[in-house]
Amino acid sequence: MTKSAASAQTQTDLLEKVRQVFTEYLEQAGLRKTPERFAILREIYSIEDHFDIDSLFLLMKERKIHVSRATLYNTIEHLLACDLVTKHQFGKNMALFEKSYAYKQHDHLICMDCDKVMEFCDPRIQQIQSMMGDILDFQVTHHSLNLFGKCRKLLRNGTCEHLAKKKQVTLTGS
Amino acid sequence: MTKSAASAQTQTDLLEKVRQVFTEYLEQAGLRKTPERFAILREIYSIEDHFDIDSLFLLMKERKIHVSRATLYNTIEHLLACDLVTKHQFGKNMALFEKSYAYKQHDHLICMDCDKVMEFCDPRIQQIQSMMGDILDFQVTHHSLNLFGKCRKLLRNGTCEHLAKKKQVTLTGS
DNA sequence: CTTATTGCAAAGTGTTTGCATCTTA
DNA sequence: TAAGATGCAAACACTTTGCAATAAG
């Protein structure tokens, strides 16, 4: 099996799994399993980057899948509720989303020059989160940590646009 | 000298100092020192909590200080540029601001039930920030860490509204 | 057949912009 | 007195809402 075939298989498995999670959520919540909802889920899981509602709308329009913006906003609320999608506010007013099933918890580094977003993991955040919850008697459900700045190396090379490649850093120790 | 007189003195000193910082910024940038700009600075430094543009507009209107929303948006950009004010996005679309001169760097804990914001400090954030900048060759200029959840203790007591009192926690060790 | 869901367009909300008027330097 | 700043209202961008038509259960 070639690498891309394996990856395609993984992608199919993932889609199958998230459809199942969504189905269970809809049933348990007494909501209807409409074709629009599953089409939106599928499109979202085909996107690698962060996206906003309008680019999702345009992507689906381009692929001849007609759903209204209202339905996108509505459906994404449900996908947030069952943790299949995560919402972000990276300093701009517009909300950005990303698929989040089976994704390791991560935080973001945002280049203010080219607007690109990189991801990183650091276990200390989890420690701070749970410790602060205890100290302040708060039930912390989630957090958002964004580091803002400029990509130095890429600025040296001229434009930042080349930074877009996903780059993920994980620390395992403390 | 009574305690409140001392505090009033401190408040006056602070206002004097921030006026000076703003003046220097405006001069160095070749911008005009208009009465509106200093009035806005004074009002902002009279606010203890986080605020949005519209509540600042209404506060100033109430105090019979007429400035337009356009001028508020314009001036706050300058105050951000010289670090006298900090901007936040706490998950909602609306931007929130706070005065930030001589304020210790801090992060936020947001109650999703009552929308109240608490502040805390943890030196590990600074460590993560500078380390990530080095690893990813990023020049990190600032960050935003928000912990979202529910205030447990206050929920037990009924409403969350009593939580509004500013509560700040600082860790000095790692 | 009942009622949730959809699509459309209208209304909201926070922010930005264009332009005539005013004012700082 | 010339360039910048202000105030107003219109324009914008993103999101939410109302409602008639549709379709899931």
Topology at a glance:
2 copies of one chain form a homodimer.
Chain A: H1 3-28, H2 35-44, H3 53-62, H4 69-81, E1 85-88, E2 96-99, E3 107-111, E4 117-121, H5 123-135, E5 138-151, H6 152-156, E6 168-170
Parallel strand pairs in A: 3-5, 4-6
Antiparallel strand pairs in A: 1-2, 3-4
The first copy, chain A, binds a DNA duplex (25 and 25 nucleotides) through helix 4.
Brief rundown of the structure:
Chain A is an alpha/beta fold and 174 residues long.
Report, as a whole number of angstroms, the end-to-end distance of chain A: 38 Å
Number of strands of chain A: 6
Shape of chain A: globular
How would you state the average pLDDT of chain A, rounded? 87
Looking at the chains present, what oligomeric state does this protein adopt? homodimer
Q: Biggest interface: chains and residue counts?
A: A-B, 39 and 38 residues
Strand order within the widest beta sheet of chain A: 5-3-4-6
Taken in chain order, the helices and strands of chain A follow as HHHHEEEEHEHE
Helical amount of chain A: 40-55%
Radius of gyration of chain A: 18 Å
The count of helical stretches of chain A stands at 6
Strand content of chain A: 15-25%
Low-confidence stretches of chain A: 161-168
Structural class of chain A: alpha/beta
Largest sheet of chain A: 4 strands, mixed
Tag the structure with descriptive keywords.
174 residues, alpha/beta, two-stranded antiparallel sheet, globular, DNA-binding
What does this 3D model show about the protein?
Two copies of one chain form a homodimer. Chain A is α/β, with parallel strands linked by helices and 174 residues long. Chain A has six helices and six strands, in the order ααααββββαβαβ. A four-stranded mixed sheet of chain A has the order 5-3-4-6. A two-stranded antiparallel ribbon of chain A has the order 1-2. In chain A, α2 packs across α4. The longest helix of chain A is centred in the first third of the chain and has 26 residues, at 3-28. Chain A is globular. Chain A starts with a helix and ends with a strand. Chain A binds a DNA duplex (25 and 25 nucleotides) through residues 30-34, 36-37, 52-54, 66-71, 73-74, 93-95.
